[in-house]
Amino acid sequence: MSDYNKFWQWFADNNERLTMLGDLEQAEQDQLLSDLQSQLDAYCEGLTYEISDPQPTGRTITFSAEGDIELFRYVVELTDNAPDLDWWEFVAFKQPKGKNLKVTFDKYHFETQKMYFMQLESEEEPDILGLRVALPDPVRDDDDQLVGVYVTLEAMIGEFDCATLLGYLDTCPIPANPKKEGFRPLDDLPDFVDWFKNYREQSK
């Protein structure tokens, strides 16, 4: 691991070009973003970033550990020590986007309005959230589809909650009567996760 100060010094030195990223030639954009990832790798390999489109107040850069809990502390350390730069907001972890999402992963397309979920409880691990997600057209034993479902859940509730709360995930076809079988619309998941976190905290 390297000193986070080296990363932020490079960022500050390239602040103007990063802020005006869209005005650069494509080759210069690509090289600058590649250099940014290289600097991030030098600080902590395994971290990634996303830069937002420009807004009236500037840009946001979000740092992610791609769900790897062992690297979470480096994301927090990096953002906690970010410099105060005009036109930039520095965010730790992919943030929740809520409900009514359409997510594409590999060859799969997921629409949260067309999906359902059920909580799977475990007496041995009551603090861990298990979920069964019902899909319109599930493919049996397809790891890529399961990863795509995880990515969809992460987009809904955010990287931190998805990684720290979700301990088990599987999929199934949507039953003829989802509500009767104990399923809820997947768009209810953000509110359910808030309830689950409060319940877990009160149970301690």
Walk me through what this model shows.
With 204 residues, the chain is α/β, with parallel strands linked by helices. It has 2 domains: 4-92, no CATH class; 102-203, no CATH class. Helices cover 39% and strands 22% of the residues. It has 7 helices and 9 strands, in the order H-H-H-E-E-H-E-E-E-E-E-H-H-E-E-H. The protein has helices at 4-13, 15-19, 26-43, 72-80, 143-157, 159-165, 189-203, and strands spanning 48-51, 59-64, 88-92, 102-105, 108-111, 116-120, 129-135, 166-173, 184-185. The strands form 3 sheets. It has a 4-stranded mixed β-sheet with strand order 8-7-6-9. Strand 6 and strand 7 (129-135) form a beta hairpin. Helix 1 (4-13) packs antiparallel against helix 3 (26-43) and helix 5 crosses helix 6 (159-165). The chain starts with a helix and ends with a helix. The mean pLDDT is 94.
Q: What's the end-to-end separation, in Å?
A: 35 Å
Order of helices and strands: HHHEEHEEEEEHHEEH
What average pLDDT do the residues reach?
94
> How are the strands of the largest sheet arranged?
8-7-6-9
Strand content: 15-25%
Q: What would you call the shape?
A: elongated
Let me know the number of strands: 9
Structural class assignment: alpha/beta
What's the tally of helices?
7
Largest sheet: 4 strands, mixed
Mind telling me the C-alpha Rg?
20 Å
Tally of distinct domains: 2
Pick out the low-confidence regions.
Answer: none
Helix % is 25-40%
